[in-house]
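Progress note, project year one: complex with flavin mononucleotide.
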Amino acid sequence: MLDWTDRHYRYLARIMSTELLLYTEMVTTGAIIHGKGDYLAYNSEENPLALQLGGSNPQDLATCAKLAAERGYDEINLNVGCPSDRVQSGRFGACLMADPKLVAECVTAMKQVVDIPVTVKTRIGIDDQDSYEFLTEFVDTVSDVGCDTFIVHARKAWLQGLSPKQNREIPPLDYQRVYRLKQDYPKLHISINGGVKTLDECRQHLLHIDGVMVGREAYQNPYILAEVDQRLCGSNKSVLSRDAVLEKFIPYIEKHLVEGGRLNHITRHMTGMFQGEPGSRAWRRYISENAHKQGAGIEVIEQARKKMDC
Ligand SMILES: Cc1cc2nc3c(=O)[nH]c(=O)nc-3n(C[C@H](O)[C@H](O)[C@H](O)COP(=O)(O)O)c2cc1C
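Model obtained:
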């Protein structure tokens, strides 16, 4: 999720679940090809990891997909769901739903240069193009060129007039439409996304669908990930406590600090770790007030934990 998740968050998520497939935030082809930083950097612990690409130039997407496959990513996912203006002016994201042929060309170009899966994340429609037939025409055209996995955010996007945030809340969720898609395309791998907050809800969806993608809840309340392996994937290893998760995260944070990184770059992903627990506000507050300070170290996390018991 742009501006929210990064490799530090994904490292934390991976401590809690070895089974999850993790996705990067959307990375544009322009950033990868022309940017100064290394936009493909990640920790090897994050695998299995999908790189989500934003773009609509088939050759650029192919170039980025190839680089990503060489770097060890496990899947390339094309973003056909982001409604932001910035993204529309670059002609990628959700507006690409209106041009399934171009999406098919993009998928074809990527599939020609990588052996890892090339998948698509999309909406159920855009603007007034929100019929089931519009969705199936999109899926037909894109699956015809060999894309066999779709992650469907179960609400349409209004490209004019709604902000990205509103586009994640205002258009109503229509899970039935995604279930119907799975029924009509039993050979495709269809994952559902949007508004899922608990593992019980995931289980319900999995009765109808192949996968569930969880966004905001997995970020704001990350500890829900701690039971994924046991409750959804049949693992019989024991569930880590919140403190055990922190303990496993500390060496990673220490390494980051030794390398000159700032504490708050990591702790910003940890503020929701104790959501719903007594003292969680004290934890959150202490971290927000102290982790950004010059020279802040592991002691801030230890103190924040102690504050919870006060
Ligand atoms: C801050 C933020 C950034 C997001 N960035 C991306 C992104 O980069 N790529 C993407 O496919 N979806 C992005 N999304 C959308 C989520 O992946 C997801 O589709 C949406 O929030 C609905 O799922 P949820 O209710 O589980 O959060 C973002 C969402 C938020 C809140």
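DSSP finds 14 helices and seven strands in the chain.
The two ends are 34 Å apart (CA to CA).
No further modelling is planned for this target in the current period.
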